[in-house]
Amino acid sequence: MTKSPRAILRLILLTLLVCHSVCRAEKPNIVVILADDLGYGDVACFNPNSKIPTPNLDKLAQQGMRFTDAHSASTVCTPSRYGLLTGRMCFRTGMRGVFTGVDGPLIRKGQPTIAAMLKRQGYRTACIGKWHVGMTFFNKEGKPVKHRGGGLKKVREVDFSRSIRNGPTDLGFDYFFGTVCCPTTDWLYAYIRNDRVVQAPTELVKPKTANWLKYGYFRTGLKSPDFEFRKVDLVFLEESKRFLKEHLAKNSHKPFFLYHATQTAHLPSLPDERFVGKTKIGPHGDFVFEFDYVVGELMKTLEELGVAKNTLVVVTSDNGPEIVTANLREKYGHDSAGGWRGFKRDNWEGGHRIPTIVRWPGTIEASSVSHQTICLTDWYATFASILQVELKPVEAQDSTNILPALLGQATAKPIREFTLHQTISNALAIRKGPWKYLNHKGSGGNHYRRTPVIRKYYIPDTSPKARGQLYHLKNDPGETQNLVEKYPEVAAELKRLLDESKNSRSASSKK
Asked: Which CATH class is domain 25-408?
C-alpha cells in the first residue's frame, strides 16, 4: 500500500529525531548481562509455555526490544565469549573445545576487544563474573603453567602469590572480579580481583556423584575459604552494584561499560537458599529464577542511581540449554530450547538460538520485536557505530552493525548477509535468509544415540548419504527434512560462501 505524503513526512521526521538522539546525546552507559546456558524457552516472554516465572526479564522486554532470531557465537562457553569480546568467530583461532581450569590465554594483550574500544572512547570498564577465555598463571619458578595433564594437576602447580597475566585488566577492562572459568565446575574455586586471586585455594573438595548430568555435580578441585558454591551469583551481583555505585560517586563524568557474566544457569544447578522452591520444576528452574532476580536487581540499581534512562542494557545468553534440561520436558512439560531442535553443543537451532532483550529508553521503542538475524559478535560493531567509531578492516571481522534494528528502521534486505555458526568441535554452519547449511553430518556436538537423556530426540537424517545438511527454517523450523539432495544448488552456494568467509581475513559478514 502506498503511503500518503503526510505519512512519509512523519516517517522522515521520526527518523531524523531518532538519529539526532543517537548522534547528539551524551554517550550512553552500556550494560551487557550474559547468562550461561540460558535457553530460548526458559524466558516467559519468548516461550508462553515456560514453567519458569521470569517477571524481571518480561518487564525488560516490555520496556525495550525482544530479538526472536538472535544467536550465540558458538554452541559452548569459551568460543562464544571470545566472539562477544572480540567480534570474531573463535574457529579463526584454531582453538577447539572449552577451557576447564587455569587454561589460556585465548585473547592476548594487544588484540582488539570490545572493552578496549570503549575504553578509548572514555568509558570506565568493568568485567564481573565468569571470564572463561583464559589467563596466564605462573608456577613458583615464574614460568607459565602449561601442564598437559588434568585440570587439578594444573591448579596444584600455580603459585597463587603471583599476579596473573592476559586477564580482563590486560584486555581493556579497568576492573575485574570473577572466576577464570565456570565458577562451580572447573577445578579452581576461587575469586580473582583484577590480576590476583583473592584467597588462595586450600581445601580439596569432591562431588558426591561422578555423574556430571546431576544438578548438583561439580568437579573435584581446590577451593578458597571465601568461596561458597550457592552464593556465587549473589557475590557477583554485589560486586556489580558496588562498581556502579563507586563509579557514580567518583567518575560520574565518564560513561561506564559493565559486562556482567553470571554462573546461572550452567550446571550444577545450585540456587541460593532463598530461591529454592520458587518454581515448580526443581533446582534448575529455581536457578533460572535466580538469574531473573539478578537482572531485576541490576535494573533497580540503575534506577536508584539515576542512570537508567541513559543506559543501554543487553541481556542475552552464551549458548543454548544443557542436555539435562531434556528431563524438564519429560517431567514438567518445560522446553528450555523453546521448540527448537537441539541443545548446547549442537549446530541445530536449539544449540545457538538465544533469548536477547535490549533496553535503551528514548531510543528503542518499548514492547518492540525484531525478527532480524543477529549474533553475539555484532555488539562490537554496534557499540562502535553508536559512538561513531570507525573499525579497522581486520577488527571485529565477524561483527555486523545492528543499530538499524535497534532503532526499528525498516530495511529492504536483512541486516546480515549471512551468519556463521560453530560447535564445540568447530563444525561449521551458515545461515542465509531461511536457508541453513551444516557443513557436517549429525549435530556437530552431542551424540544422541549413545546419550540416554537425549536418545529419544534423535531424528534420522532424510539424506543419510549426503555430506552436509540443508534446512529451510521457515518451512521446517524443527530441522527435520534435510533438503541437500533436493536443492543441491542452494547447498553448493552456501558451502561456497562458508568456505570463502572461513578463509577471509576481512570483515566478510558485514554488509
From this structure: alpha beta
